[in-house]
Amino acid sequence: MVTAPDEHGELEGPYITRTREEWASLWESSPVRLTGEMVRALRATQDPTEVDQIEQVYLPLTQLLNIYIAEANTLHRRSNDYLQLNHGSVPFVIGVAGSVAVGKSTTSRLLRELLAQGPGHPKVDLITTDGFLYPNAELQRRGLMNRKGFPESYDRRALLKFVMAVKSRAREVRAPVYSHLVYDIVPGEEVVVRRPDILIVEGLNVLQPPRRLSRDGSPTLAVSDFFDFSVYVDASPESLRRWYVERFMVLRRTAFRNPRSYFRRYVSLTDDEALAMASEIWDTINAPNLVENILPTRGRATVVLRKDESHDVEWIKIRKV
């Protein structure tokens, strides 16, 4: 249940809430632009995000991010001066989290494009945590094929080492590549990240806290410990379920028909059978993962973008600094 803001837009707790109209009014004119054609190329299947939503939601978000980035750079320079160090700038890391089918990929790609047009035209890289899923053979060995997307299905140690290396300004950091077509890690393929100014890390569980203590009883690290800013893309469970089923039906008529597709077997199903299959996958895998693992991390985000049933962002929560 959403608590309405008071006359000052304030909420109890660590967040303030702004309606989309209030949020849009914060944007100050800038040279950053996206055309309709660019938006269509960036958005995911079944995501209806259009230019007006970018102008009203994502441009103000980008300007807020640029404030955070500028302040982080200033703090780094002043810290270097105080400690008499001569270290280069540290990459600014942004986490993007949320459920399956909520539109994380579109949000991440839009932020990458908009931030790259910002002050100084920074180098912005995007990595998804899909590449850190264990290969299917390993998931089968561990009995986790039906838990794909749950925290235990990821090589969290490898993901943590990757983000730590980027944050430490390693010259070159490599990550595995995941194919949604074959539903597995692609052997021999890698994504190479070379000292970006900004790194966006997108994934279901990127805001998870450490899950256990080390042998000496001290807390372990989580990838979210290295985020400078985080975004949680939110929607009602009912909308998420409907979007997932709709996307499944579209993919059944398109990508699933590819001879290499892991899901090709679903093409021969009747519409009713396909609807039943998509609903079962959601109810037995995606919904439990949302409730148990993803949704509990929403309160750890810097910004929450809440979508209505039409995929439009209707309000924004911002953590008080």
Overview of the molecule:
This protein has 321 residues and is of the alpha/beta class. The chain has a single domain, classed as P-loop containing nucleotide triphosphate hydrolases (Rossmann fold, 3-Layer(aba) Sandwich), CATH 3.40.50.300. Helix content is 36%, strand content 18%. It has eight helices and nine strands. α3 (51-83) crosses α4.
CATH class: Alpha Beta
The first-to-last residue Cα distance is 24 Å
The major sheet is characterized as: 7 strands, mixed
The low-confidence parts are 1-11
Class inferred from helices and paired strands: alpha/beta
Helix count from the secondary structure assignment: 8
Task: Indicate the CATH topology.
Answer: Rossmann fold
From the alpha carbons, calculate the radius of gyration and give it in angstroms: 20 Å
What overall geometry do the principal axes of the alpha carbons give?
Answer: globular
What's the structural domain tally? 1
Question: Which labels suit this protein?
Answer:
Rossmann fold; disordered N terminus; 321 residues; 18% strand; alpha/beta; 9 strands; two-stranded antiparallel ribbon; 7-stranded mixed sheet
Could you give the topology of this structure?
Blueprint: E1 15-19, H1 20-24, H2 36-42, H3 51-83, E2 92-98, H4 104-116, E3 124-128, H5 136-141, H6 156-167, E4 173-179, E5 184-193, E6 198-202, E7 229-234, H7 237-253, H8 271-294, E8 303-307, E9 313-319
Parallel strand pairs: 2-6, 2-7, 3-6, 7-8
Antiparallel strand pairs: 1-9, 4-5, 8-9
Helix pairs in contact: 3-4, 7-8
